[in-house]
Specification:
The protein is α+β, with helices and mostly antiparallel strands. It has 13 helices and 17 strands. An eight-stranded antiparallel beta sheet has the order 3-2-1-16-15-14-13-12. The relative contact order is 0.17.
C-alpha cells in the first residue's frame, strides 16, 4: 500500500504547487493569415463537414487545427446526439479508442527517460509470465527465436494480435480468452496472453494488436501505480488535460457524445447511448490500447507537447531524444508494409506510438513525407506535419472506422498553407 500513498501524496502536491494544473494558459488562437494560411481556403472545411452531416454520413464532428503552435481553425458540425437533438460542442467528450496508444507509449517513454525502462529488453524482464509465450506453426507451438521486446510492443512487431489475424488457430483462443474484458485488470490480461500463441516471430512482421495494452501493464509494474493514476500524475495534470480518462465522470456526462454505426450510404444507427454507456463507469481494465475518452482541446495539448519536442508551456514531459524516436520510423527494412487485411498502407512505417509517412504513394496521396499520426475506431483522426509545423485533429463518433473525413479534408488543409 505504500506506493499508493506516495503516489496520492505526489498527486496532491502537484495539484497544489504547480500552476498549470488548474490555470494553464490556453493555446492561443490567431488568424490563419498571421501564420501563413488562407482563411478562405480553410473555410472550405465547414462546407465539406456540413455536407457530410447533411448526407447523414456522420452525426457530427469537430475540426481543430494548429499552425506554428497556435490555433488557426476550430469548428463544430452537426449533432453529438441525434436522439437528444444536442448540437456538437467544442468541449464534447468522445471515445478516442486507439488514439489512446500514443499516450500509453508516452507514459512508457517517460520511464525510458528516467532510466527505468529498456526499449530492447525482453518484456519478460518486467512481466515474467510472458517468457513462456509460444509462436504458432503448422507443426505445433514452438519457442520463438527471440522474446518480444518493449520496442516490439510500441511498433506492433510483437506477434500479438486482436484475435483478427485471419488464422483461426490463433484467433479462436484469443476470442475465447476475452483478453480485453473490462471487468478484469491488466495483470489478468497478460496472464491470459502468456498462454496464447503469437501469430509470427517477434520482429518479423507488423500486425495491429493488444501490444500497447501489454505496454500499459509494463508501465504499471515499473511505476508501481495503476495505469490511470500514472497517466493522471505524469501526463494529464502536467498538460492540463482535464477531460481525459478511462471513463466519463457523472458531472461531465452531459458532454458525452453518442456513438453511431454507419452503413456508408446515409443511414446512422445508435451504437452506444451516452446515457447508458459503459464509459460512464470506471473500468477495472485500463486499456492503454483503446480505453480513453477525451476532447479535441485536451488531445491538441498532448500533440502540441510532442510537436514542441516533449514540452508544453515550459512543462517538460518527455526528452527531445524520446520524441525524435517516437516520430521516426522504427520498423526493420525486412518488415512488409503496414496492412489491415487487404488494405495495404504503402509508404507508411511506424515509430513508437505513431504511424510515420516514409514516402509518397498511391495510398493517401495528399499526405506529406514525415507526417505522423493515427486514429481511433470511431473514425477519429489526427496527423502532424513537422516540416509545416501543422497539427490537425478531426473527430467524429462513427463506426466502423473510416478515413472519410481525414481524406476529405487533408488536401484542403495543406492547400491552405501559403508560405
Amino acid at each position: 500500500m505504500r506506493y499508493r500513498f506516495t503516489s496520492y501524496l505526489l498527486l496532491s502536491l502537484l495539484s497544489i504547487s504547480v500552476p498549470y494544473s488548474a490555470s494553464a494558459a490556453e493555446i492561443p488562437s490567431v488568424s490563419p493569415e498571421s501564420v501563413g494560411m488562407s482563411a478562405t481556403k480553410l473555410a472550405e472545411i465547414n462546407k465539406v463537414m456540413d455536407k457530410l452531416v447533411a448526407d447523414k454520413r456522420l452525426a457530427g464532428g469537430i475540426v481543430l487545427i494548429a499552425k506554428d503552435g497556435k490555433i488557426v481553425h476550430r469548428s463544430t458540425h452537426g449533432l453529438m446526439d441525434i436522439e437528444a437533438n444536442k448540437p456538437m460542442t467544442k468541449d464534447a467528450i468522445l471515445r478516442f479508442y486507439s488514439m489512446s496508444k500514443a499516450i500509453t507509449t508516452t507514459a512508457a517513454m517517460i520511464l525510458y527517460d528516467e532510466g527505468k525502462l529498456e526499449l530492447d529488453a525482453p518484456i519478460s524482464k518486467y512481466l515474467p509470465e510472458m517468457k513462456q509465450v509460444k509462436v504458432y506453426s503448422k507443426d505445433g507451438m514452438k519457442t520463438p527465436k527471440r522474446e518480444i521486446t518493449v520496442r516490439d510492443l510500441m511498433r506492433h512487431t510483437s506477434g500479438l494480435n486482436y484475435g483478427s489475424s485471419g488464422n483461426p488457430a490463433v484467433d479462436q483462443p484469443y476470442k475465447k480468452a476475452d483478453v480485453l474484458n473490462r471487468d478484469t485488470d491488466l495483470a489478468a490480461m497478460t496472464t491470459k496472453l502468456s498462454q496464447l500463441p503469437l501469430v509470427y516471430e517477434p520482429g518479423q512482421d507488423w500486425m495491429y494488436s493488444v501490444s500497447v495494452d501489454v505496454l500499459g501493464r509494463v508501465v504499471e509494474v515499473i511505476s508501481q501505480q495503476p495505469l490511470d493514476q500514472f497517466f493522471q500524475e505524469r501526463i494529464f495534470i502536467p498538460l492540463d488535460m482535464n477531460d481525459t480518462g478511462f471513463y466519463v465522470p457523472k458531472g461531465k456526462a452531459n458532454r458525452f457524445a453518442a456513438n453511431y454505426n454507419s452503413n456508408s450510404k446515409g443511414k446512422l444507427t445508435l451504437k452506444d447511448d451516452p446515457t447508458e454507456s459503459r464509459y460512464l463507469k470506471n473500468p477495472k481494465l485500463f486499456s492503454g490500447g483503446g480505453g480513453l475518452v477525451s476532447t479535441a482541446r485536451d488531445y491538441m495539448r498532448f500533440l502540441m507537447m510532442i510537436s514542441e519536442g516533449g514540452q508544453l508551456q515550459g512543462t517538460r514531459v518527455l526528452s527531445k531524444k524520446s520524441v525524435k524516436m517516437m516520430t521516426r520510423d522504427q520498423l526493420p527494412k525486412s518488415v512488409p508494409d503496414i496492412k489491415f487485411g487487404e488494405n495495404v498502407r504503402t509508404g507508411v512505417g511506424f515509430g513508437l506510438g505513431f504511424s510515420i509517412r516514409t514516402e509518397m504513394s498511391d495510398w493517401d496521396p495528399q499526405g506529406r513525407v514525415g507526417e505522423y499520426g493515427w486514429g481511433g475506431a470511431a473514425s477519429t483522426h489526427y496527423w502532424a506535419s513537422p516540416k509545416d509545423d501543422l497539427i490537425v485533429i478531426v473527430l467524429e463518433q462513427t463506426m466502423p472506422y473510416s478515413f472519410m473525413t481525414e481524406f476529405a479534408l487533408k488536401g484542403i488543409i495543406y492547400d491552405a498553407i501559403e508560405d
